[in-house]
Design brief:
Elements (H helix, E strand, L loop, with lengths): L5 H9 L10 E2 L2 E2 L10 E4 L11 H5 L8 H14 L15 H13 L5 E5 L7 H18 L2 E5 L3 H7 L3 E5 L2 E6 L1 H6 L4 H6 L4 E8 L4 E4 L4 E3 L11 E6 L4 E4 L7 E11 L2 E8 L4 E7 L12 E6 L5 E4 L2
Parallel strand pairs: 3-4, 4-5
Antiparallel strand pairs: 1-2, 6-7, 8-9, 8-11, 9-10, 11-17, 12-16, 13-14, 13-16, 14-15
Helix pairs in contact: 3-4
Length: 315
């Protein structure tokens, strides 16, 4: 989330901020006392920080002044081709689109052949469609180069789309690290569960030797397997929208809900509901054009795929 220390961590790795404790290692090198210019780190800032009076080629070659002219020109041409801007070398940054400027900034960071690439919310200034295109382009580029890359973002969908490994930070601390699938399917804390993707939070009390959850409304949910909480323990059940099923009639294990709003988003239909005790609940299901949609305000019943839901101690 905003303010958790993501950009600060990136600047510590780059050598722009000195950490108060701890050490920074890149590969086998301890660079804690190494000046930023000697760390072999490439960094792309959120606003790209291109020089407006320089051409695209001059921007990319800015950090290559120590090379012979022919070698510098060859390196710039190679990078222009890599980021698919070969015909734009003589243009100024203001003559480029946001996505093209972003690619120039990446090429400039790559020009000195860094050992690691750092990106601070590089797609934040782009519109939604262009952002999605640039995410695919970035993954292609990163895999082609094989360079270790750390990308900071507060957009969970973006993180899951581009990353092999995710680190979720909260209040300056590492909350959980793992693959996108691990963090989505097996979040270790309520914070990660509700931050990575969406989840509704239902408060409950444990009963019957850990086999039953009693909701605040008095309704009970029978668990598929017992949980390791003592009877009477206060817990929260985190339920992702796709694990909620809507039903027009009561079935075993279902609870009452009222439909407040239904919103189509592409192939999915998202529902805002409220349970009998006032708890907000979100549900999602594939949109079926020929299936009748329940009217807003309708009283329904919902059940949960409890084997996919997560249970945590109440905060």
């Amino acid at each position: 989330p905003s303010g958790c220390g993501k950009s600060t961590m990136l600047r510590i790795i780059a050598g722009l901020i000195r950490p108060s404790t701890g050490r920074v290692r890149i590969g086998a090198r301890d660079v804690s006392a190494t000046p930023a210019r000697e760390r072999r780190v490439g960094m792309v800032f959120q606003n790209y920080a291109l020089f407006p009076h320089m051409t695209v080629s001059e921007n990319i070659g800015y950090g290559l002044s120590s090379l012979p002219r022919s070698e510098r020109d060859a390196r710039v041409a190679q990078l222009l081709s890599l980021v698919r801007l070969a015909e734009f070398g003589n243009r100024l940054p203001r003559q480029l689109s946001g996505g093209q400027q972003q690619r120039v900034a990446v090429a400039r960071a790559l020009a000195p052949r860094p050992s690691i690439l750092l990106l601070d919310e590089p797609f934040a200034a782009l519109d939604r469609a262009l952002r999605a295109d640039m995410q695919f382009e970035f993954v292609r580029l990163q895999r082609e180069l094989g360079i270790t890359t750390i990308l900071v973002t507060h957009d969970q969908e973006e993180a899951q789309a581009v990353a092999d490994n995710l680190i979720v930070m909260n209040g300056g601390c590492l909350e959980q690290a793992g693959s996108p699938a691990e963090l989505y399917d097996a979040p270790k804390s309520l914070f990660v569960n509700t931050f990575v993707g969406q989840a509704s939070v239902l408060h409950a009390t444990v009963e019957a030797g850990g086999t039953l959850l009693r909701l605040r409304s008095g309704e009970a949910l029978r668990l598929p397997t017992p949980i390791r909480f003592v009877d009477g323990a206060k817990v929260v059940l985190a339920v992702r929208p796709e694990h909620v099923n809507l039903q027009p009639v009561a079935l075993a294990g279902s609870v009452r809900a009222r439909l407040l709003l239904s919103v189509p988003q592409g192939p999915m239909l998202f529902h805002d509901l409220v349970l009998a005790d006032g708890t907000a609940l979100k549900a999602a299901a594939p949109r079926e054009p020929r299936s009748p949609r329940p009217p807003e305000g309708a009283d329904l019943h919902v059940s949960f795929a409890l084997d996919h839901c997560r249970i945590y101690p109440a905060p």
